[in-house]
Amino acid sequence: MKLKLNYLIPYIVLFIIILVIGFLQHNVVNLEWLGIKTDSILPLAFATVGQTLVLLTGGIDLSIGGIICITNSLEAIKMTNNPINIIMFTIGMLLLGLILGAINGLIIVKIRLQPFIATLITWSIYGGIALWILPTDRGNVPKSFISALLARFGGIPVSLIIILILIGWWVYLQRIPFGKYILALGSNQKAAYLSGVNVDRIKIMVYAMSGFFAACAGVYRTAQVASGSPTAGNGFILTTVAAAVIGGTSLAGGEGSIIGSIIGACILKLLGDLLVFSGVSSYWVSLFQGLSLIIIIAIVSVSNLIKSRRKIRI
Amino acid sequence: MNKMNSFIRSNKTIIFSYITALILFTVISIVRPDFASLNHIRVLIIDSAIVGIIALGQTFVIITGGIDISIPWIVSSSAFFLTQLSSGKNDKLLIIIPLILLCTTFIGLINGLGIAYLGITPIIMTLGMNSVLLGGLLGITQGKPGSRTPTSIQFLANGSIIGIPTILILWIIIIVVATVVLKKTAFGRQLYIIGNNETVALFSGINIRLTKLIVYCLSGFSGGLGGILLAGRVMQSYLGMGDSFLFLSVIVIIVGGASILGGSGQYIGTVAGAFILTIINGILPVFRIPASAQQVVYGVILLIAVILTRSQESSKI
Lengths: 314, 317
Description:
The structure holds 2 protein chains of 2 kinds. By secondary structure, chain A is an all-alpha fold. Chain A has helices at residues 2-24, 31-56, 64-78, 83-110, 115-133, 143-149, 158-175, 177-187, 189-194, 199-225, 234-246, 258-277, 285-313, and strands spanning 152-153, 156-157. Chain A has a two-stranded antiparallel sheet. In chain A, strand 1 (152-153) and strand 2 form a beta hairpin. In chain A, helix 2 packs across helix 11 (234-246) and helix 4 packs antiparallel against helix 10 (199-225). Chain A is globular and about 60 Å long. The two termini of chain A are 20 Å apart. Chain B contains 14 helices and 2 strands, in the order H-H-H-H-H-H-H-E-E-H-H-H-H-H-H-H. Chain B has a single domain (21-316), classed as ABC transporter involved in vitamin B12 uptake, BtuC. By secondary structure, chain B is an all-alpha fold. Chain B has helices at 2-10, 12-31, 38-63, 71-86, 93-117, 122-141, 151-158, 166-184, 186-196, 198-203, 208-234, 245-255, 267-283, 294-316; strands at residues 160-161, 164-165. A two-stranded antiparallel ribbon of chain B has the order 1-2. The chains are: A mainly alpha, B mainly alpha.
């Protein structure tokens, strides 16, 4: 029963934040507001979904920063206003993310490097490639691309629909073997291997998916900001981990959920908004994000320490 | 003769690093004769010294099996506060420099407390700290660059005494102290045991937490010192001047023969790594490789170095 209560905390926090925002800004919390917020949350939500999958297996993906930078830069400068070109190019970007992610997985599995060092290496390489493609922030993003991704269907934003699809996908994932294997890998890799799970293949697939979701984040960011940046992705590394941890994902792996992570992403973004709304300069936002990550992890670690001490006493 | 053989065997990776540095330097000097000019060698030494000093604490951290990626903004913060607090004048430096070093050591202390006493993974703790420092510095400066570096610090980084760069004298002292600490003191030996096997370290009665705490403090201190020297080298401070050290401070150590998993490595190896990376930075323009590709090159070198240092480990077993 106590475990259930822990899972509810992120939802309660999100509810309180929305209440506070509603209280501070009357008449603001409506469907239009929701659309603007889901639009701004979606890139982080995408990247966090990928990061969560990796964290669930007990790894970490630092390279998403580089993948977001590459896809964002390419989309911003290479697309033309032709619809077929836009669609093909976007699909190409998502495939590129998938491949770059799979490279991470291959390095981890075949060369047997620790995930953090393997993805640190590829972060450096991918980030460098992004800088090569686009040395400074600029871009020429087709209008039709932007309006398609920021569209509303009868007032319901595309971004909200995508978030609901992601949640549905996670519910489905939990029911199929692949989803169970991911969790099994994170709880006990050896046990998973001994029960016949193809550990290497699952790992490569998970990192490929993380790359794919990072590419989704990069593509969506292009529409949202209408520009490309070779460094904007780097901020996502910390925020995705923070959002996942706020949502109840364990850094040790095997525990957590994508729904929680999306809630975590919402909390992080809305808290940032509250901060700016209360008159704090947006320059301080990284400080707040870093602090919230450290504080939450410290709380989790301390509670784990207390729990393990209790166990010893018994 | 026997002693000589065992010396070579136990320091194989480090000797290999120095030979690599020498070969790189010779080959490039043949292609580009002005690369080996006295003036350019001076520049190479100064740049290597700054990288080497920043990577001092990181070497100790990596030996214990950790990593400190808060280095970039420790360096930037230290450089910024040096130029801002002194406003380009020399008179208050005797108070300002110890103050800055104290503050950066304190940042390392917080990293160490989180990692050693709360059990937070090093990469997460220092990633969070990096973001805190980035946000704090952006908030304080509102994105404006800092002012000029005091002339005495510029002399410390760029000047020379009887033809020897001043920074080289400082670096040699640091090299000697760091090597003696790692090789001859109990503290130094404990770092290797912690990096190799924490359980063994615990049962040998080593205070693992305190040792780790000291190591991260040292990383904060050397990052701060490196930031001051970097500000002296480029004669001003600007935001993000430490960014490249995120990868660089790790690569030079791995290239110097340390294992990323901990338990091996020496500061003298990091010195070789600093030379190799500085020379490589120098060749990129020679081969008309754009500066933006630097990061790609760093990544590839790190990958190769990690694979090489790792395979040596497995052959040891």
